[in-house]
Design a protein that fits this description.
- The protein is mainly β.
- The chain has two domains: about 90 residues, RimM (Elongation Factor Tu (Ef-tu), domain 3, Beta Barrel), CATH 2.40.30.60; about 60 residues, Roll (SH3 type barrels), CATH 2.30.30.240.
- Helices cover about 5% and strands about 45% of the residues.
- It contains two helices and twelve strands.
- It has a six-stranded antiparallel β-barrel. It has a six-stranded mixed β-sheet with strand order 10-9-8-7-12-11, with no helix packed on it.
- The longest helix has 5 residues.
Length: about 170
């Protein structure tokens, strides 16, 4: 499978115990999603992945502990340290209308509804009230609240977003 079609959902921190279990730092919001998987792809950065069957999953504090078929000792599990747990992109859960994966938003071109190009979405900052989009322009940055009153159109396929800034949100003259 093409690594670009695979999504990193966890990072293997190392062994947990002596029976081949792995400590996983989840890279997704819902760590319980890992317990729904029957198998997983594992590969290091810029490497092809290999499929492993999952025999057990449990949450331990902020980490997830996974037992894989064929990994039965601490030594076996050490080999997988710093590798990523991945799933094929087509296994991602469907999102609701006006919901997007952060990975799909990053790098998207942002302009106003009047055609003024602001830059590209560099980061999504998660806050309790709503997400904030950090837009990196040529010579400045903008913080845009991710709310329907401002975000007017998101076209993931064409990597474009249109916003309609409220009064005082942007100083486009300065």
């Amino acid at each position: 499978m093409n690594p670009a079609e695979e999504i990193n959902i966890g990072l293997i921190l190392g062994p947990f115990g002596v029976k081949g279990e792995l400590k996983i730092m989840p890279l997704i919001n819902d760590a319980n999603r890992l317990s729904e998987l029957k198998d997983v792809l594992i590969g290091k950065e810029n490497q092809d992945s290999e499929r492993y069957d999952i025999t057990r999953v449990r949450v331990h504090k902020t980490l997830v502990i996974i037992k894989l078929k064929g990994i039965s000792s601490r030594e076996d599990s050490m080999f997988l340290k710093n590798a990523y747990l991945r799933i094929p992109r087509d296994q991602l859960k469907e999102l609701g209308e006006d919901q997007f994966y952060i990975m799909d938003l990053q790098g998207i071109e942002v302009s106003t509804t009047k055609g003024i190009k602001l830059g590209t979405l560099a980061e999504v900052i998660e806050t309790p009230a709503n997400d904030i989009y950090l837009i990196q322009g040529d010579d400045r940055k903008y913080l845009i609240p991710a709310v329907k009153d401002i975000i007017k159109n998101v076209d993931i396929d064409n990597k474009k977003m249109e916003i309609e800034p409220i009064e005082g949100l942007l100083d486009l003259e300065g």
